[in-house]
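Quick start: read one record
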Amino acid sequence: LLAAALGTTFGAQAQTADRKTAIGGNVSVLQYRGELGNDWWNLGRQDLRYGVGAAITRYLSPSFDLGLMGNYQIYHFPNNSQPTAQNRGFVVKSGFVDLALKLKLNNGHILKEDAFIQPALLAGGGFYLAHSTGNNGTGAFDNGIGRPDFMGGALLRFRLSPALFLDVQSTYHYPLTERTDNIYSPTDTRYDDFLVHSVGLT
């Protein structure tokens, strides 16, 4: 799930074998897929909004890091294919907080530890904390949400200096809830899910 993301970035202390704890920040784009529609990979849509994120990671070994990651965004999803009178859509103040294990490919076996390009894969879980308001076509709703979240993704890291890295990352999030768009169906086979694309400095 590698993707181009948008915006400017900010960062703090970078991570190496000698500096085992790293702090980073990013700007991000959240994308929704659910019963009201599919926003995935649509970076040019109307009313695109940006979020912010941060991460604290701990070096475990040349192959693995452990990270605590957070992301916050106010996200708007209008359903423009519906008549205006139905006014289907929602606004969600969305927060993801996840603990993730990172598998680094610059582990000295596949790529050098100090390689300029440092790919990695992520997997973990945490919580989806959100407040969603809108209209699902049958009526208005106002939902507070706190549910488990499962995530996975990919990171492409560029080594700018021994202490500074540029991160381009995409993660898939699967929170166990239908309360974001407030549409439930006995035939549903999955919950609403999300992509988060980000660019940041670590």
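The radius of gyration is 18 Å.
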